[in-house]
Amino acid sequence: MSDEPVLHVKGRVLVGPQDIRDDLWVVDGRITYDRPAAARDVRTVAGWALPGLVDAHCHVGLGAHGPVDTDVAEKQALSDRDAGTLLIRDAGSPSDTRWIDDREDLPKIIRAGRHIARTRRYIRGYAHEIEPEDLVAYVAREARRGDGWVKLVGDWIDREVGDLAACWPRDAVEAAIAQAHRLGARVTAHCFAEDSLRDLVEAGIDCVEHATGLTDDLIPLFATHGVAIVPTLVNIATFPKLAAGGESKYPQWSAHMRRLHARRYDTVRNAHDAGIPVYVGTDAGGALPHGLVAEEVAELVTAGIPPVQALAATTWSARRWLGRPGLDEGAPADLVVYEQDPRTDVRVLGAPLRVVVNGRVVG
Length: 363
Hints:
Layout: E1 6-14, E2 20-27, E3 30-32, E4 42-51, E5 53-58, E6 62-63, E7 66-67, H1 70-82, E8 85-90, E9 108-111, E10 116-118, E11 128-130, H2 135-145, E12 149-153, E13 155-158, E14 163-166, H3 170-182, E15 186-191, H4 197-202, E16 207-210, H5 219-225, E17 228-230, H6 233-236, H7 239-246, H8 251-262, H9 264-273, H10 293-303, H11 307-312, H12 316-322, E18 335-338, E19 354-357, E20 360-361
């Protein structure tokens, strides 16, 4: 045992939704449920403890116009951390954030490399913008650069059509997803509309971001293939403003965005009820500020997902999906402590009592 103080977390430790312990100990930055025999300096934290929250769609290092400086990226990561987010799936960033891995006080990041988009079919400065014949090569490149994920832009506004449209032909996505899987990476895609979803799912995609275009005929397809969704409802809330801004130039697109927004809660509830895995993601970075994880969990509850399952979508289930431990014996001590039971009221997530990263109390 090192000379570092031992942390004693007592009260209610939610190892799982129904697996509750009275306390845990943190020794040398790791969790143990065995009381250490020779602890000379013990710090005690009391309350309801959860595994560090997961934001499964977040962009550290991304700003409104593309990559940001290191100091800005650090502030983004700190905002997420202080909100209780200790595990991030970075769903596309043009910045190199590997330096964060060396910081003991910042969230852990699972990277999906840089977005891969069709030429002039995404936000300028965000993505590799390529044509279909180059898709396999770029997917291979980002699979090697990322941490087991690749991010495609599945649809975006087609200026000639004046509405959302799929970005890739079926054969291109089939080949690209197969290549990612050969390299051990999973694939996710930004998708607002309906048209791109069937091809992506039947091509073997692992996850869809936003998924506002899910319809009754597509939901069974997702459920059968086990394709997860990350709805990012705090981002979908911006659709009416976006639609108003594009009304004069792209009225068809604007009307479409309003329809997708209007049915957003029904879409998420129907997906959940059909057994589609749903996870928490905020889409922070770019247009949205960081630290919105509690708001997104509350949005899932508003959509009709039971509170305990909405909580699981940012804790136990989300960590299992991403292959990272929770409050397991020997795991890094990344946890958040609250004054009240978040299973009965997810709004509790908005006020962490203590945040612990790698065994250190940082907030």
